[in-house]
Each structure stands twice: as C-alpha cells, then as structure tokens.
C-alpha cells in the first residue's frame, strides 16, 4: 500500500514538471463561432468605391477648367480683345498651367471643339463665339432693323452684351433709336428698333380701353373669335391673291393592242398556187 502511494506522488510531481500545450483553433472555426463576422456582408467585387470617387472628382475638375476658360474668353471679347489664342495662352491667362496632360488633351480634342461658345478659327487657335456678329453700334442698329422688317421681334439684352464689345457704351450712344421692353415672366430686357415713321398719336380714351382689356391666357385665335361674336371683323390680307392653277386632267390612254399578223399575209405576193 505504501508503495502505491509513493508511485502516485512521484507521478504527480513528474506531471507538474512537464509543460502543457493547447491545440490552436483553426481560422474557419473562429469565423464560424463569431456571429458578427458571419452577419457582415461582403462588398461586391465589381464596384470600386475609391475609383468611382476619383472619376467623379476628375470630371468635376475638368469641367471646372472648361467653365473658367469660357468665362475668360467671354470677358476678353466684351473688352474688345478678339484675337485668337492657343491652348497654352488660354491656360496661361486663366492661371491653369498646372493641369495634367490628359485634361489638356481633352480640352483640345473634345471640350473646346464641341462647346457652342468657343470657335476654332485656325488649327489650335480659339476665340469666343457670340450669339451675333457685332462690331459697333452701327452693326447693332442694322441687326435690330432687319429683325423689325422681317418680323423677328427683338433681341435679348444678354445676347447683345455677349456679342458686342463695350455694349453699354454703344447702347447709350444709340439713345432713342432703340426701345427696351422687360419680359414679365423672367424680367429679362429685350431690345427693339424704334421705327419713328410708325409713330402716331393715340387718344387717351383708346389707350385706357386698350390697357383695361384683359387678354391673359388667350391666344390670337380666341381673340379673333371673340371679336367676330361682337360684330368686329379682324384685318385680313388685302394683297392680290394668287389663284391656284387647276391641273389639267390628262386623258386616259387606251392600251395599244398590237395586231397579230395573219398566217402568210405578209408573204401574199410571193405565194403561188399550183394546180394538178
């Protein structure tokens, strides 16, 4: 009995001296045991968020460069500086020489050529393209006269300011030769030619009646219809009317019936009769 107890105590001392090693868990087991890792959705491989942000930022930067160029070219034209510039001169004047090669190539190949406000007059040289070709007050007055004669109406003040260098000075010099009308829906000014030959005095009573007539929401057809119901006929064209020519009816052609030749009729003079 004492021998068994001594062996047991010796085994315990030996077991305490030996180091114990625990088996490590595999990565798959740790992932499976963690609920947060299993519930976390994996990002799709086809979408690169960082790439999308860089593309959007690059596009915004490029169009910002283009907007600055168009604004500068417009200001040059309004100041009377109309000689063409190269892309390097444009970037220099707009303080954008630090743009990359891709952005510069995009401006040359696509942006400046397709922009309606920029015109390439020579290969690699650009100017501002205004809505109208105006050089001085005489050209502006001529344009307004042509619009008045052709019934095209007026010209927006914004278009004149873009097209005519030093437009404010020219408009001031024209004086009462032009008229200004403010559109009610957008408050934009429109320029008209003041044809003094059409000026006549209208009685104040007629002016009051004209201004008191409400025609909001009515077109020309409705106004003409209302006047006809009241016994007032609208003015019609008094010029010579062209009578439309009635096309002559062509006779129906009968189909040509070709006569078929009878037997031996075309060689009747050659035939001979032989009697037995």
UniProtKB/TrEMBL annotation:
Q: Where is the TFIIE beta domain?
A: 43-135
- Keywords, A to Z? DNA-binding, Nucleus, Transcription, Transcription regulation
Q: Name one GO cellular component term.
A: transcription factor TFIIE complex
- Per UniProt, what is one Pfam family of this protein? TFA2_Winged_2
Q: Where is the composition biased (Basic residues)?
A: 245-260
Q: Low complexity composition bias: which ranges? A: 31-44
Q: What does this protein do?
A: Recruits TFIIH to the initiation complex and stimulates the RNA polymerase II C-terminal domain kinase and DNA-dependent ATPase activities of TFIIH. Both TFIIH and TFIIE are required for promoter clearance by RNA polymerase.
The entry assigns this protein to a family as follows: Belongs to the TFIIE beta subunit family.
Q: What is this protein called?
A: Transcription initiation factor IIE subunit beta
> What is the originating organism of this protein?
Notodromas monacha
